[in-house]
Amino acid sequence: MDDLKHQYIIICESTSHMLNTDRLLKLRGIKTELTPTPSEYGSICTTAIAFDAEDKSFIEDILQKNYLGFQQIHPYQPRKLSGLIRSLKNNIISQPFNEVMVKIQEGKELTKEEIVLLLKSDSQSEKEALYQAADKMREEIIGDTVEIRGAIEFSNYCKKECNYCGIRKGCTTPSRYRMTEDEIMESVYQLHQWGIKTVILQSGEDDYYTTDMLIQIITRIKRETKMGVTLSIGEKSYDEYQFLREAGTNNFLLKIETTNRQIFEFIHPDDNYDTRIQCSEWLRELGYANGSGNMIGLPGQTEEDIAEDILFFKKMRIHMIGIGPFIPAKGTPFETYETGSIEMTLKAVAVTRLVCKNVYIPATTALASIDPDGQTKALKCGANTIMLISTPEKYRKNYQIYSHKNMIDLASAFKSIAEANRSIPKYLKVTPQEVV
């Protein structure tokens, strides 16, 4: 089901209706895929059901005979960027680069070779054209408002030994901590008071927090604040993901980090590539708004590898894609490795916007950690989300997954948004003047 041009999508009234519809269609032998809802039909962080055009009549008959809470069936319409080539008329670009821009303008899917060509753009004029195209795609699909979310890093214990990570098992650099439920809720209340709609609960892979403990925290957040909940807690079993989803978790962030199997195994000595892929598939199947992402500048990584990552995001129908430079932490086996390129990270952000289109792309904390203007730059080339570091002050310096981490707060988020000439979300209950 890779050719979306010959597909239709089903828009449902709710996530539960969508999952029930998808389950029934699969039982009837119909191949379906869960995909981020195109912006013209609903919110980016909702999920639609994609199916091949040849099954349309059969599906319509099934839906008419079963009340499944569906609203409409729409043909998939490739997103075009009318006027893109005209807007680039002052840029000096090569013929091959121009041909790729024409395909983007016409809404055609890019090949791996064309993605690599964009990633390898090295002239200033072509890079500016790439960023301009990505920003135009972002503006037309999502608009100018920057989504703001708050991340609470509730534990820096981890059972894994990733070679680059500052909270890896056995790393002696941080003081270990685990937040209590009440401590977590204090930070949640602060975010809720500011008007923020989604909280991200992030930790190392820490088995101290059982599924029942996590469900209790999620249930309390939902009951007391009605906020959206994103989990970023690593690899779990299918049943654990299902229980957490049923408890009210909306989104799950599990980065692939690289789709190059050899690099993945090099940076994760005690991890399994196939397990990571399986977990991502389970999350999609269970109806999570699925988050992933990669690191730019990993040892041995090429533009071809990054292109494969981007195609993976598209194939897996990822809703939120975090792209940041590789930053090794002190006290790890990789501490002397070179930090990833800011420029290549920005190009990857831009190309991901052009290829994946209607997704959330954060201006990552990692970018801000090696360039004070990194988030502003990312917002100007396709990014549309900022995540605040909302971990309590007494803990946050110990969540050093990479060295010299920038502790993004509301003031710095407002600054980046203003410098990028973008808009603060209307749901916020605090103004820039109040946080200066």
UniProtKB/TrEMBL annotation:
Its cofactor is [4Fe-4S] cluster; [2Fe-2S] cluster. Residues 144-364 form the Radical SAM core domain. One of its GO terms (molecular function) is transferase activity. [4Fe-4S] cluster binds at C158, C162, C165. Binds 1 [4Fe-4S] cluster. The cluster is coordinated with 3 cysteines and an exchangeable S-adenosyl-L-methionine. NCBIfam families: rSAM_HydE. This is Radical SAM domain protein.
